Amino acid sequence: MMTHLTLIVPFSVPPGAGDDGRDDVIPGALLRQLELPALGKLLTRATPGPRERHDDPFLRSLPQERWLAGKTGLDTGRVPSAPYMRLADSGATAPAPDGQAWACLQPVHIHAARDHLVLMPPAHLGIRQDEAAALHAAIDPLLRESGIALQTPCPSRWYLPEAVFGPLEATTPLRAAGRNIDIWMQAGERARDWRRVQNEIQMTWFDHPVNQAREARGELPVNSVWLYGGGALQAVPRLADTVLSDDPFLAGLALAAGSRVLPVPAGLAGVAAPGGSVLAMLELAAEAHITEDWGLWIERMHALDADWFAPALEALAAGGIDAVTLVLGGENHFAEFTVTRADLRKFWRGMGQRGDWRALLSDLAFAA
Description:
This is Regulatory protein, RpfE type. The protein has 368 residues and is an alpha/beta fold. The protein has helices at 25-33, 37-45, 63-72, 82-90, 129-145, 173-176, 191-205, 209-216, 248-257, 286-290, 294-318, 341-344, 357-365; strands at residues 2-9, 47-51, 101-108, 110-112, 117-119, 151-154, 157-161, 224-232, 242-244, 260-262, 276-281, 321-329, 334-340.
């Protein structure tokens, strides 16, 4: 029997009125169109857990990254995601922490808007192995001249020792995606050195045959790199016996702690029946939220309710799961809720203001 199911659901909260200067029209309209009966029952019966409250709209990490960092004893202010992503991308068993700090160098596309630059979501690129090899070869002389030993364990994420540019204030690409990148650029004592190398890479790739071929196929060119996630691998506690994740940071944390790591299935029905605890990162609604495709976001949230929340509620009621924890995130905050089988019998929690799950989501959207 599954003892505990934790579902991390990034970008499952509609935007708040304060996000990017929005008024309250979009959040209100989205909440009225959502039909999430299973999530609603879980939320209104649950006991609230830790909740992020702050009024800083420019935190450089994602809410789910800060939740994971907090649960594993890592720095939540400057989340050291790179060494764990490197572990996941290399497919190796977790080494003993050796103090070596790494940063992630991610090939990206930066789009020139009318009066500013916009970082596109990295997943849109779909860089192939042969493309990554050719692009790396093109900048290898530049890297060697700068004393940079680059590791390329997968096409979409590369790694270099953090000491090359020193600790920088850096932003997770998905946090900056779709926005003017001016305020999200790397900052620190050696940020100028980093910017010089970034500019030279951009010039090298500007008219590269890989990008010519990509543009001919109607694909985005790979025209820049983004540096982030610096830090050293540390011993971390186990988040769950089994972790279902396509996110490299979470997968790396799980590998470092000795958990079993599997891809995320289409729904809870696709999870093999392991004993012990299970944690899943459900990112189905993330891209629609980031690109502000609200019709698609509503569809994805409805799919999550049907494929994950409803089966979890059913298993909880039937005794197949002892407890369910939901970690819901918006653009800038997270909140945790835990519900047990006994909580489902507390019908009075579903009455009055507490029983309004839309009000709960609205409150999370405006969290501060």
